[in-house]
Structure formats: structure tokens, C-alpha cells
Specification:
- The chain has 254 residues and is of the alpha+beta class.
- It has one domain: outer membrane lipoprotein receptor (LolB), chain A (Clam), CATH 2.50.20.20.
- Helix content is 30%, strand content 32%.
- The chain has a 12-stranded mixed beta sheet.
- The protein is elongated.
- 26% of the residues are buried.
């Protein structure tokens, strides 16, 4: 009986020892695994270098889709824009105001909106007349070409300018440091945090080109996602029968 007990104890000790040996090897392997294995390597760089590579990759890209919220001059804008070097298209809405579509091909800028948008144009506190309502209904769903001399042209066209938007949005303020590793739309990322996050947080792709994929702007000035980098899309002016003349100043950007 005593010999049997000693035998069981010996076998149990051998099994436990084997398990511990396997766990030691596995844990040692996990501890030494390189977190940047299979990535583009930017995770090994200082925060300022990661930011610089992300900005360079963004400005060199041929196209991007930008969506989210942007707070500018006290107004909150919701954007969903597809942008390339010679223009862009998409939707913009200001908080408390109607949604409108923008299309820019080269220097030609077009705006399309529903009747409510056009009724609001230049009304102030005055109630719209039946003439106003009739005119607005005729403009609904049509493209209105915005003249370069219109005060709204500069701001509206800015929503369709890839380099202008990226240069303005990809701005962090304060001391940079690397933050968490995470994922954006299934792509592994690393954060660049400015002023502990108060100056903005930029999530940069660790797979493929180091594109910026998400930006939390400093001062709670909005959150935008940047996707579809270098994905081609068609950009063309609307047909002539779809374009009408508004004939007055557009106040959408005021």
C-alpha cells in the first residue's frame, strides 16, 4: 500500500512538473513577443515621428473619406466628404440647420439642398412668402453653382479641399507622447496624444501605410474618422439641365 501511494505521488509530481515547464516556456515566449511584429514599424518611433509620418502619408494620398463632427468658430458641422486633389463631394450639415450637399470639380463649386434650406436663405426673422416657398421648391434637388465672388464660396469650398481640411484637422497642440494601441475599422493603430490628450489624440495605422485613421480634436472640437485612403471615385460636374442659378448671395456658411 505504501509503495502504491509513493508511486501515485511520484507520477503526480511528474505531471505537475511537466505542466509547469510548458507554462514557463509559453509565458517566456509571450513576454518576449515583439508587439510590432508584422506592422509597418511606426510603433517603435517617438510620438513626434509617428505624427510626422502620418501627416506625410495623408498629404501624399490621392483621396480620402472624412466623416464626423467639426467645431469651427462656435458652430458644429457634421461632415461626410470624399476628397481628392481636384475636388470633392459629400454632405454637410450645421447644427440646428438643414443638410446640404457639396460638389467641387476643379474651381467649379455646386451646392444642392432641399426646399427648407433655400427657404432659410436671407429670410432673417421674416416669414417666407408664397413666392419664397415657390422659388425654394424649384431649387429643391437642383445644383446651384456658387460663384467664386460669393462670400460663401471660400468656406464652402474649404469643405471640399483635401489639403486644406487635412492640414487644418491634423493639428495637435502640446507635448506629444504615444498612447494606447487599439483598432479603427479593424486596423491596428497606435495613438499620438498631445498634452495628455487635451491637445488632441491621433490614431495612426500600424498596418500598411501609416495613415491617420481617427482624430479626437483638442478642446472637444470634434471627432473625425479618415478612411478609404487612395480609393478611387468618380468626380464630374452635373449635367447642365441639373444646374440652376440662385441669383443671390448664399448664407449657408455664415
Amino acid at each position: 500500500m505504501t509503495a502504491w501511494v509513493h508511486g501515485v505521488r511520484a507520477r503526480s509530481a511528474a505531471v505537475v512538473g511537466a505542466v509547469l515547464a510548458v507554462l514557463t516556456v509559453v509565458l517566456a515566449g509571450c513576454a518576449s513577443e515583439d508587439p510590432d511584429k508584422g506592422t509597418n514599424g511606426v510603433g517603435r518611433l517617438p510620438a513626434a515621428k509617428i505624427e510626422d509620418k502620418a501627416r506625410r502619408a495623408a498629404l501624399a494620398a490621392g483621396s480620402v473619406r472624412l466623416s464626423g463632427s467639426v467645431i469651427s468658430k462656435g458652430r458644429t458641422y457634421r461632415l461626410d466628404m470624399r476628397l481628392k486633389d481636384n475636388g470633392g463631394l459629400g454632405e454637410v450639415s450645421a447644427k440646428g440647420g438643414p443638410r446640404f450637399e457639396l460638389l467641387r470639380v476643379g474651381e467649379d463649386l455646386y451646392l444642392k439642398a432641399d426646399a427648407d434650406f433655400w427657404v432659410d436663405q436671407g429670410q432673417g426673422d421674416r416669414e417666407p412668402t408664397e413666392t419664397d416657398l415657390s422659388a425654394a421648391r424649384k431649387l429643391e434637388g437642383k445644383y446651384v453653382k456658387v460663384p467664386p465672388g460669393d462670400p460663401a464660396y471660400k468656406q464652402l469650398s474649404g469643405f471640399t479641399d483635401k489639403d486644406v481640411l487635412l492640414d487644418g484637422l491634423l493639428a495637435l497642440h502640446g507635448k506629444r507622447e504615444t498612447g494606447d494601441r487599439d483598432e479603427v475599422e479593424g486596423v491596428r493603430t497606435i495613438e499620438v496624444r498631445a498634452a495628455k490628450g487635451d491637445g488632441g489624440v491621433l490614431s495612426v495605422a500600424l498596418i500598411g501605410k501609416p495613415y491617420p485613421l481617427r482624430l479626437e480634436r483638442g478642446g472637444d472640437a470634434g471627432v473625425v474618422e479618415l478612411t478609404e485612403w487612395d480609393k478611387e471615385f468618380t468626380l464630374r460636374a452635373p449635367a447642365k439641365e441639373q444646374v440652376v442659378d440662385y441669383g443671390r448671395r448664399i448664407s449657408a456658411a455664415e
